[in-house]
Amino acid sequence: MKELFSEKTTNHKNRWTFIPGIFLSEESLEDSNILNSKELLVFILESIQDGVSILDTDMKIKYINNSIKYWYKESGKILGEKCYRVYHNRESPCEICPVKRTMKTRNAELDTVPYNSPSGENGWQELFSIPIFNSKNEIIAVLEYVRDITLQHYIENKLQNLLDRMDNIEGKNELLTQLLRKRETEKQDLESTITKNMEKFVKPSLEHLKKFTDEKNVEFVESLIEEIIQPMTKKRNSIIGRLTSRELQIAEMIKDGKTSKEIAEKLCVTKKAVDFHRTNIRKKLGINGKKVNLRTYLLSHN
User: Fold this and answer.
1) Average pLDDT estimate for 207-230
2) 27-36, 87-96, 117-126, 231-240 — most confident range
3) 84 neighbors 94 (Cβ within 8 angstroms)
4) What is the mean pLDDT of residues 9-13?
5) Given this model, what pLDDT does residue 78 score?
6) Other beta carbons within 10 Å of 51
7) Nearest 5 degrees, angle CA 280-CA 276-CA 299?
8) Which domains does the chain have, with CATH numbers?
């Protein structure tokens, strides 16, 4: 195996490290014994596009791969220096350092930490720390694997902000929808009350006035009132809307439980006239036979 790494290896043109390839003196893998070589391990470490460091128990850097060299090329000397000084420009270990936890727990650890590189780039890294033991089962070093997740972290934050804004908008929309429903219900209740009062009180009064004053004047007033309440009455049930004003008037009294005799006295007409209107109401509403109670039907179609 020769010239495993040429000068091009450290000639970084972008964030990706460039490895030209492995050069073998032999003609085949079997002849070269490459699969059992130390050089292959080094080549693999150097080829990894994430950062790889080996730290001793004093957290001094003993080895770095090409990605670390590129990321911290402005730092000057790296090997032999404390990791937190080179990687994080600190004088003491980070509070959430996974390497410290690994040396304490003797297990692999993982954490996400911010970084400030000497070149002025700020971002986030995912750090994996893996203990290295000697034959006496003592930790003699820690392998630190570093993955730059700045873009992922940025996208996740933006996505979370967007989701928060959507939740806020949905909450406001729900509140607005409830307010609109309440206003619509109040409006319908008001229209219903006005319409019922017109049928129950105003129209009977106008009919009564016709007996004692000029009927044309009363009809003129009645037409004005009809014009005013028309936007509300036109929204009423389409079946009920088939009835004349007199039939609506009598229908309202029937719903109130009044008998034909009581209605006749109220409207100053004969009981026979009321019965005639009742028959017409049943026909227009499609009520056939005597089995269906007119009052019950009117109440159910209010």
Assistant:
1) 73
2) 87-96
3) yes
4) 42
5) 92
6) 23
7) 55
8) 1-47 (no CATH), 50-148 (3.30.450.20), 184-300 (no CATH)
